[in-house]
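Forum > Structural Biology > Help requests

Title: Can anyone predict the 3D structure of Protein phosphatase 2C?

Hi all, first post here. I have the sequence for Protein phosphatase 2C but no way to get a structure on my laptop. I'd be grateful if someone could post the structure tokens.
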Amino acid sequence: MRVALATEAAPGRPNEDFVAVSADAAVLLDGAGTPAGSESGCSHGVAWFARTLGSSLLAAMTQKHETLPELLASEIKAVAGLHEDTCDLTHPGSPSATVVMLRRTDDALEWLVLADSGLVLDAGDTAAPMVICDDREAQVGARYRSAMDALDSGSPEHQAAHRDYVEALRAHRNRDGGFWVAATDPLAADQALTGTVPRESVRTAVLLSDGASRLVDRFHLATWRQALDLLDQEGPEALISRVRAAEYSDPTGSRWPRGKTFDDATVVTLSLP
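Reply #1:
Sure, ran it for you. Structure tokens for Protein phosphatase 2C below:
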């Protein structure tokens, strides 16, 4: 298996994405940042949470034989145990993250997607690639984002509206009828999208945080086929470079309204023999 990956923090911020790959498994997490002025109840922070959960998930996928939801539930519980004595895990802003897991067996690829990071599976022929993304957060968020989207990104007013937007979403996090992320509740793992495909049917698998997939699904500057061709020809750094160019071209969000002018961007491409 040939692996190419790149990750880049949003300018001026720590990278809250995490990605790791072994011979037969890959995991990507995108930590949900806490806007300035909001509390989380945790002294460790989002980057710590994504890094800690992500590394334990990769180890579990390579050492244990449980299903991916079972592994995710177990590791969410284990990470919660690491800071339940020092942090308020009942706080609605406790660190959380999206999760993409991919595991290769002798004859299949097993996958799990929780929240809005993406997985693309490509057969390498004329068929459209299989794109998996859990859009429940976006569906909930559409109810609350109009005030934020009407303001110039980066302005004090936009920052305040973004904080209000994030705090409104917290009331729907890990709730029936809302959306689900990896945080403190192991039951969130049961809500993940999961599936299995024959190993021989996939030539390339791509895991992306939403800061990277926005080239396609928010900015609409490429189709998924064009994005896959770019990754094949120039690599993950080229895709992230195009995302950054688009972000810099629209600093106020007038063309593409968004909560974050810039976002952490992570891509890993797995070319399967």
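The radius of gyration is 18 Å. The chain has a mean pLDDT of 94.
Shout if anything looks off.
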